[in-house]
Amino acid sequence: MTKPKVAICWLGSCGGCDEAVVDINEVLLRVAEAVDIILWPVALDFKYDSIRGLKDGEIVLSVVNGHVRNSEQEEIANLLREKSQLVLAFGACACFGGTPGLANLTTKEDIFNWVYRDAPTVVNPNGNYPQVSTHVNGKELTLPEFYDHVYALNDIIDVDYYLPGCPPPPYLVMYAVSAVLENKLPPKGSTLAPQRALCDTCKRNKSKPDRLAIREIKRIHEVEADPETCFLAQGIICVGPATRDGCGEACMNINIPCRGCFGPVEGVVDSGAKFVSALASILDVQSEEEITRIVDQIVDPAGYLYRFSLPASILKKKRG
Amino acid sequence: MSEYKPKLVCFSCKFGWGYLTDEAALSSKIENWIPIICTGKIDAAHVINAFEEGADGILILGCPEGDCHYQDGNYEAKKRVYILHRLLEPMGIEKERIKLELSIDPEGRRIPQLVKEMSKELVKLGPCRKAKAAEKMPREVVKARGGE
């Protein structure tokens, strides 16, 4: 009997998601016994041509991590979609664009100018910029086209399931793998993680006063945060109220507030917008001056509230 | 050049604005007027959604300070508006595009006037540049989806 074919692939990714797959440890060996891994660029030497040679839908599952920002990433995403029955967007970048998505606050032109011209460590007297096509000694050299925008995977292809996280925790990776192998998948489009907000399971929730009321906002490195107390009660911004649960509180456990890598809770599109309302209601100030003073203590609100989800936010998601 | 007419969405609190007037008659004079029960009810997502749907500006009319029927809805709106100013500016939405006025006008006569005044300011700002970079999809994606 032939084993089901599985592809694991990275697009615009740091490699942390692939590391998360390795982190399922010996379970990985059982997975490797049950399935035939036919593509995994970070770990195994397979060629894209062998994927091109497959029949449509021959791959049972493609686990795709990373965002899409260039034509090569887009081509691979489309190829895997064509050849796969199921595509799982794996990790915050594939699900919502991830931290690289913050690049959508600036333009491609500004990025190129900084990286190839203005950064203090750059020496580029001829003003060379990467070109999609360059002719050298009668030969053509090509590079993928760098797009204007960072895209989440579902901006480019149809995605069947989502597993958020930066990176997704091993136990959810195992749930996802066994759900596929045992054919116990939820309806298409589901996120394979709990539906509630992080605060619902946070151990610090007990320490939260009846009514949160803060008059100062501090950054985590500016104070010695109490490891038992709700971050918001300490005036440290924690986006747990607007973030999906399921991460295993990895950050909380090392005394770092939630930054939102699990994305919005079920039914919410824009976690940043939701957090604005939550944050406003706990600021214990009324006068114009006080509001300005306390809100201005948040350095880079757009970066903070959309750290992982800017390309999937209402204003910055792709359009038609 | 054709005259640019900005799209303005006006939310107003029913406890402070236009409660003595015929809502239907007044709404015929104001485009995109949304009377609501309290400005504290306006979620940041409502404002952001309005921009996404093509609004060039949002005008929020709430009760005077200290006069909220629900105690502090207008203060909540005030805080949200200021956070939104800070949040949306890096995304290309200038703070002048979200305006909050806390006052009282039972007849609602000032609503069309305030809408007109803000529209004039929006004309000066020009069309909202919201999510400019996002409007351009890669050529290949557009092609694959049957576009140009």
Description:
The complex is a heterodimer of chains A (320) and B (148). Chain A is α/β, with parallel strands linked by helices. The mean pLDDT of chain A is 93. In chain A, 29% of the residues lie in helices and 14% in strands. In chain A, the strands form 3 sheets. Chain A has a 5-stranded parallel sheet with strand order 2-1-3-5-9, sandwiched between helices. A two-stranded antiparallel ribbon of chain A has the order 4-8. Chain A has a two-stranded antiparallel sheet with strand order 6-7. Helix content of chain B is 35%, strand content 14%. Chain B has 5 helices and 4 strands, in the order E-H-E-H-E-H-E-H-H. Chain B has helices spanning 23-27, 44-52, 73-88, 110-125, 139-144, and strands spanning 8-13, 33-36, 57-62, 98-102. Chain B has a 4-stranded parallel sheet, sandwiched between helices. Residues 131-141 of chain B have low confidence and may be disordered. Chain A binds chain B through residues 71, 74, 78, 104-105, 107-108, 145, 147-149, 155-156, 269-270, 272-274, 276-277, 279-281, 283, 285-286, 288, 291-292, 295-296, 298, 300-303, 305, 313-320, and chain B through 43-45, 48-49, 51-52, 65, 72, 75-76, 78-80, 82-84, 86-88, 90-91, 93, 130-131, 133-138, 140-141, 144.
